[in-house]
Design brief:
With about 150 residues, this protein is of the alpha/beta class. It has three helices and 16 strands. It has a single domain, classed as Hexapeptide repeat proteins (UDP N-Acetylglucosamine Acyltransferase, domain 1). It is about 20% helix and about 30% strand.
Amino acid sequence: MLFFKKMRYKICSLFARYPITFKWTTYWWKKCGYSIGDNTVISPYCLIWATHHLDIGYVTIGNDVHIGPNTILLVRSHPKKDLALYGKLVSQTRGKINIEDGVWIGAGVIILPNVTIGKCSIIGAGSVVTKNVEPFTIVAGVPAKKIGTV
């Protein structure tokens, strides 16, 4: 049973990354098991980097969300304490990504684990979101910082 879940995830995520139609990407990410709301558009070449089929519950995307092309949602990362203790990366941590209703995410955005993006927020293209974003806020930059309100 576990084997079939892994295979389903791998096949669906492969289809999701290489779109044929406009709604193709969103459809296949939903088929992977991710919680994606109504009227949400995930643009071509986006990647939800979960690395494991058990990480599906760690990504929640609300209604009316628009995610630009080449955006990456990272569910897993490495703790920096590994470098200090062992001199190399030896473990992984995972964290939830919660994107609330009405969010616009520009092209090429990277969203790191343990981040919540508040309702009706706008994330500028090329930003790296490392911390929570308040509702009705515009953020941009590396790392993403508040530049205005909606």
